[in-house]
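Hi support team,

I submitted a single chain yesterday and got back a structure, but I'm not sure I'm reading the token output correctly. Could someone confirm the output below corresponds to the sequence I sent? I've pasted both exactly as they appear in my results page.

Thanks,
R.
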Amino acid sequence: MASDDLASDTAARDYSTVDFFLGQDLLEDPYPYFDSLREQSPVTREDNHGVYMVTGYDEALAVLNDTERFSSCMSVTGPFPGFPVPLVGDIDALITEHRDKLPLSDQLPTMDPPEHTRHRALLMRLITPKRLKENEDAMWAIADRMLDEYLKPGRGDCIRDFAGPFTLYVIADLLGVPEADQELFLNQLQREHRPGGTLGSVEGKAMEHNPIEFLFAKFSDYVEDRRAQPRGDVLTSLATATFPDGSQPSVLDVVRVAANVFSAGQETTVRLLSAALRMIAEQPELQRFLREDSSRIANFVEEVLRTESPVKGDFRLTKEQVTVGTVDLPAGTTLMVVNSGANRDPRRFTDPTRFDPERSNARSHLAFGRGVHTCPGAPLARAEARIALERLLDRTTDIRIDESVHGPAGSRKYRYVPTYVLRGLIHLNLEFDVAEEKS
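Hi R., thanks for writing in. Yes, this is the structure output for that exact sequence:
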């Protein structure tokens, strides 16, 4: 089956004056803009900041899989604040010399091999298949605990009251955050300091409350404590993990990895869940389809990732002259690999604007990236989404958009996070009929 068509109005429009990065015009629906770029060329220079937008699937793969000629040093911020010196001459040497002046340069997504290779290996020693399986077993109980409170009123903001807390507690469990501290994490990272903001929304702007600083402080305490007094718990495993050569990372190295897992994993999974729940609540036929057979949820999640990727894209900097597709790019060029655009490339996906929960190649999307920077938390995010949706569907008989908040069908009002990197709703208020408990 195929659900309602998600195609946007693609009437001819001049996007030359629209600023994708600093403007607000495309927050609600950026997809016609991505389509218009791809129609010009799968690699197109946008007019406002000189960024080359890669909206073609094959071209995106070529960039993501090539770490020799493309650097990730600006992967999170892109054109803002830009590189600290003119990009003239030996680009590789300039990156090495000035990397530490770039925002988030100590985070895994901005690292290049071989430093990235060492730190990612450290991460994979922390997120082992055994630990992921143990974490998945705990997710069912965490989902039910969150739903016990969320479902009581019969309506509520699923981001604030369900998806946000659920993903936070799941990541906290994975990393072994003591149960006594988990409420503090929830308050610091969601309830008290995030009125519509995002955990990782930096983009060169100063933040009054920096959640990364909170995470660094807490995990530094945990790592130092467990190194001094090992306890045989998850935090001790975190504190005593080693690089592939057997050397011990600094406390800061371990903390960086843990903080990145916590912030990035939580943020993107919340956006994935809210996108999925909006579709379910908007489309009764789709909701019935999933209720009839919960095994369909897994592929449904993949199609949500394809059509509503939580990350619109990330950036690369050319280290030398290179050709992408048919476009020649000089050294020092900033590219945005637009996952959301590549995921709708008709050369890869038939009828790409149509949401089809049975799409056979949905899982080939680029929502989690590709290459050495493929999201290491992808299995976790998939499990979180599948379990959260299955439990919510199990414990309700109907889920609807709360029209008192978002308006009636045909004139809905939604607010999206104001960032050019992330794609997602700020609030999603639902109404639901709670199922009778099975005896």
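A quick pointer for reading it: The chain has one domain: 31-434. Let us know if anything else looks off.

Best,
Support desk
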